[in-house]
Automatic annotation (TrEMBL):
SUPFAM superfamilies: Glutathione synthetase ATP-binding domain-like (SSF56059), NAD(P)-binding Rossmann-fold domains (SSF51735), Succinyl-CoA synthetase domains (SSF52210). Residues 490-696 form the ATP-grasp domain. This is Acetate--CoA ligase family protein. The keyword Nucleotide-binding applies. InterPro entries: Acyl-CoA_Synth/Transferase (IPR051538), ATP-grasp (IPR011761), ATP_grasp_subdomain_1 (IPR013815), CoA-bd (IPR003781), Ligase_CoA_dom (IPR043938), NAD(P)-bd_dom_sf (IPR036291), Succ_CoA_lig_flav_dom (IPR032875), Succinyl-CoA_synth-like (IPR016102). It comes from the Bacteria. The lineage of its organism: Bacteria, Bacillati, Bacillota, Bacilli, Bacillales. Keywords: ATP-binding, Ligase, Nucleotide-binding. Coiled coil: none annotated. Gene3D superfamilies: ATP-grasp fold, A domain, ATP-grasp fold, B domain, NAD(P)-binding Rossmann-like Domain, Succinyl-CoA synthetase domains. GO terms for molecular function: ligase activity. Pfam families: ATP-grasp_5 (PF13549), CoA_binding_2 (PF13380), Ligase_CoA_2 (PF19045), Succ_CoA_lig (PF13607).
């Protein structure tokens, strides 16, 4: 829910602006802020503060902040970091509604700067004034002809795109690249150091805007997981795709992200899994980012799912795109026989009417063939998207642009136009047709198309905004100290409804002999001080008689004395052997960014050699737990392979939910949990946690 602090209408759609530190010196940032407002044609009221000038660019100057009128929507602060707090206090007296601090010299410079930044954060929170920055290049709302920035951003095409960036330089690069393919941003936000308003505050606000169709962003790290989670939910509830270039994924990249904007890059695997499971579109570079925004903005989402049709004048380009489609898991449609018959009627006899459709170079002599081919292919019921590839031949193909634009406008299917190797003059003529989604090469087109198709496919059948079910376990307020041994860990798991083997802790051979056991048994030494017990002969399996149980007990005690003579045992755990099944690992950790998080992995060789794991912040609901399970690389093992039956996936999902609720209850007192393995039995027979370790602070 938006509060006064993150209701950003006054910052992103201001009706009045003041500039503190305005300057008539054209070399200074204070001048550029003023000249940008003048040049873009901002229609709101502008107030400048600088006692040395009467006016700058025809805007009146005030001697002091105290002379300003009350309730100005937005104030741009361009003074040294040492003077900022004094300025903020004066602005609070004038009851300003939002502030942008453009100066640098804060957390990115070290301890002293971090202290100044914390004072800004405290001010923003206490006064309920949203603050952008410091160390930002500013914001813009190009449709409303407003720019609060010293950058050289110029208005471009008017598209319903909002863009938020944690790097001013990468943000302006993305803006430039978008202009090159004929799209423009409605909103542009450089979040800077985020002392007051952070990246996901902007995302949350923009998700609710009716004038935004898609949101793009450059993200180094989230500062507040709850804000990120709520913002992403708002995007889904408002049907706004979120396309992120998330960087800082490598160890060195994370270090660079921290030094760049004092952001915490967080655990890369958790980011990857969290964004994937929440259907956020991840892109790997700046071009894929802007290309994907273009396809979201300029193409429709077909009601009926199908495959892609590839129409080219080059067999080679068709092969490239087909290969890329396979890599990106896009189905290349099998065209209907009726479609092929119609194509044979309009194309040369030596053309290929299979998909990809190769019109051949003959179309250079008869450009109308291109339009006929596109129209016929789009009518195929097996096709939901079409990529048209042409190369060079600038003048001859210009004639098809009006009709191609009409098709793009009227079709209920996606159409992407790749016209490669053309002159700048020809490109400008293409971009004048605003309904055409133009991407300059086939690989980029398929990458962007893949991202958009995947987003809409994953969204089908999901109702965002529905109230989630309540917990499946009773909420508890628990704290643990130190490391729990296996017996203690399993007793805690049992409290949350997780099945563990039937067993008992014993402290003497007399205890063993006095019990009535159901064989076969497993026997383990129990101690929170000893790891890897099986390496020291402290675990005995498949014990099938009282006599063998006595011998196993004695062996464990002898091995313990030999290997760990000074470490005390808490006892010996005797349990019934769990039924066979497929092994998985469930773990938990407390991540710096995401807080308590659940890890799921395939057991045995899969986790050790293939690193087949997925991690997600807790708590999870049943749907999210199932998505986690299905995102494992070797998920098919759980479905049943090589004559093995499907295992109890539904119960595994329920157990993951129960464990996620447990670690939420444990809060900061838990640092790590390891249930290795959980045995997942055949469908209908549940799961068993056969080993467990919980480590507290």
């Amino acid at each position: 829910m938006l509060t006064k602090t993150n209701d950003l209408s006054s910052m992103l759609s201001p009706k009045s602006i003041a500039v503190i530190g305005a300057s008539g010196d054209k070399r200074k940032i204070g001048y550029k802020l003023v000249s940008n407002l003048k040049e873009i044609g901002y229609e709101g009221k502008v107030y400048l503060v600088n006692p040395r000038y009467e006016q700058i660019e025809e805007y009146p100057c005030y001697q002091n902040i105290t002379d300003l009128p009350l309730n100005i929507d937005l104030v741009l602060v361009s003074v040294s970091s040492a003077k900022v707090m004094e300025v903020l206090e004066q602005l609070n007296e004038r009851q300003v509604r939002s502030i942008i601090i453009l100066s640098s010299g804060y957390a990115e410079t070290g301890e002293a700067g971090a202290k100044l930044e914390s004072e800004i954060s405290k001010f923003s929170l206490e006064k309920s004034i949203p603050i952008c920055g410091p160390n930002t290049i500013g914001v813009a709302n190009f449709k409303e002809r407003f720019i609060a920035s010293f950058s050289s951003l110029k208005p471009a095409a008017d598209d319903s795109i909002a863009f938020v960036t944690q790097s001013g330089a990468l943000g302006t690069l993305s803006y430039t690249l978008s202009k090159e393919i004929g799209i423009g941003f409605h909103y542009f936000v450089s979040s800077g150091n985020e002392a007051g308003t952070d990246f996901f505050d902007y995302i949350h606000y923009l998700a609710g805007r009716q004038d935004v169709k898609v949101i793009g962003g450059y993200l180094e790290g989230a500062r507040d997981f709850n804000k990120m989670d709520h913002a992403i939910k708002a995007c889904h509830e408002n049907k706004k795709p979120l396309v992120l270039m998330k960087v800082g994924n490598s160890k060195k990249g994370a270090e660079a992200a921290t030094s760049h904007t004092a952001s915490i890059a967080g655990n890369a695997e958790i980011y990857e899994n969290y964004l994937e499971l929440n259907n956020i579109v991840r892109v790997s570079d700046e071009e894929e980012l802007t290309d994907t925004l273009a396809v979201f903005t300029k193409t429709v989402n077909p009601e009926k799912l199908g495959g892609v049709a590839l129409v080219t004048q080059s067999g080679g380009a068709g092969i490239i795109m087909t290969d890329r489609c396979e890599e990106r898991k896009i189905a290349v449609s099998e065209l209907a026989n009726s479609t092929k018959m119609k194509l044979n009627q309009v194309l040369p006899s030596f053309a290929s009417v299979k998909n990809p459709v190769d019109m051949t170079a003959q179309v250079a002599q008869s450009p109308e063939m291109i339009i006929d081919t596109v129209e016929i292919t789009l009518q195929d019921e097996n096709v939901d998207s079409l990529v048209l590839y042409l190369q060079m031949t600038d003048e001859k193909f210009l004639t098809i642009l009006p009709r191609l634009s009409d098709i793009a406008k009227s079709s209920n299917k996606r159409l992407i136009f790749c016209w490669s190797g053309i002159s700048e003059e020809t490109k400008e003529k293409v971009l004048k047709h605003r309904d055409i989604c133009w991407i300059p090469n086939p690989t980029r087109a398929i990458n962007a198309l893949s991202n958009v198709r995947k987003y809409y496919r994953n969204n089908r059948g999901i109702e965002y905004g529905k109230k989630e079910k309540t917990r499946i376990t009773d909420e508890k307020h628990l704290k643990i100290n130190g490391t729990l041994n296996e017996w203690e860990s399993k007793q805690l798991l049992k409290e949350y409804g997780v099945t563990v083997p039937k067993g008992k802790m014993i402290t003497s051979i007399r205890d063993l002999e006095n019990e009535q056991w159901t064989f076969p048994l497993v026997m383990k030494a129990v101690s929170s001080k000893i790891e890897h017990k099986s390496d020291y002969g402290l675990v005995e399996l498949n014990i099938n008689s009282h006599e063998k149980a006595s011998r196993a007990y004695k062996r464990i005690m002898e091995n313990k004395k030999a290997c760990h003579p000074t470490r005390e045992l808490d006892g010996i755990l005797v349990e019934e052997m769990a039924p066979v099944g497929t092994e998985v690992i469930v773990g938990a950790l407390n991540d710096e960014t995401f807080g308590p998080s659940i890890m799921l992995g395939m057991g045995g060789v899969f986790v050790e050699l293939m690193k087949d794991v997925v991690i997600h912040p807790a708590p999870l609901n049943h749907y999210q737990a199932l998505k986690m399970i299905k995102s494992l690389k070797n998920y098919q093992v759980l479905e049943g392979v090589r004559n093995k039956s499907r295992v109890d996936i539904e119960v595994l999902a329920e157990v993951i939910v129960r464990i996620s609720e447990m670690i939420i209850d444990l809060g900061d007192s838990i640092t790590e949990l390891d249930i290795n393995p959980i045995i997942v039995h055949e469908k209908g027979k549940g799961v068993t946690a056969v080993d467990a370790l919980i480590i507290g602070k």
